[in-house]
Amino acid sequence: MPIVTRFAPSPTGRLHTGHAYAALFAWGAARLAGGRFLLRIEDIDGGRSQPESEDAIYRDLAWLGLEWETPVRRQSEHFEDYREALARLADMNLLYPCFCTRAEIRAEIERAGSAPHLPLHSPEGPIYPGTCRRVEPGERQRRIDRGEPHALRLDVARAARLAGPLSWTDRLRGEQPATPEIFGDIVLARKDVPCSYHLAVTLDDALQGITLVTRGEDLLFASHIHRLLQALLGLATPEYHHHELITGPNGERLAKRDKSITIEALREAGKSPAEVIAMAGFGE
Ligand code: GLU
Question: Which of 66, 156, 225, 244 lies deepest, with the highest CB count within 10 Å?
Fold first, then answer.
């Protein structure tokens, strides 16, 4: 099967050398295997996405010498796909509306803090204590009918029971038993956006026929949830390669707010593509 990889940036700022590393990694893996390389714009968050950042992504990647297939998939054009996947999960009785505000979740976690049987932290922060999972169906409907803003959460324990034992493979780490429950009941549709990162990325990787997902090791744990969603939605499971994250001169993580190491700033400062590629860790 030919290898298909992708680079999936969010257009919320300029790309930096860490993104260059991730993009070159995915592109290189496809090229080495005579495969295909795709680009995806992860712009479900209309409040944070900027058209000029999307333009800059194309400009920066082309300047580095990367080529990708067109058309580029822009997530904001595919809400219908996400809606349909959510409807399937709802039909399986795996979703529930969550009306909690952040403050209410914090307060509930503090209250539950003394209950030692509850794990409090997931790789994404505090675990949702399940408050709205316990709301009666009639009450749920009344609150929805009243127009109360709500997210949709996955009942992860029920979903994991339905899916049975699962595993996925990371090229560096080997076969991983999937442990999606470490996240608790994750949000699959946000209050302000009718899907979420986990749902959109999992569905898109499958719809685009990605066979090798390469991304930073900061997203290693996300693959446990993605594997569960693949099983529930009957999607193919790609292979994974979570690579290291390149860091700044003091070992710190690179962030989009560090303007000095953006590809654009380096280009304007007179660096060549080869120099930036070397800075991203792909020097000869
Ligand atoms: N859009 C995500 C980001 O900007 C990456 C998604 C992925 O590779 O799974 O970090």
Answer: 225
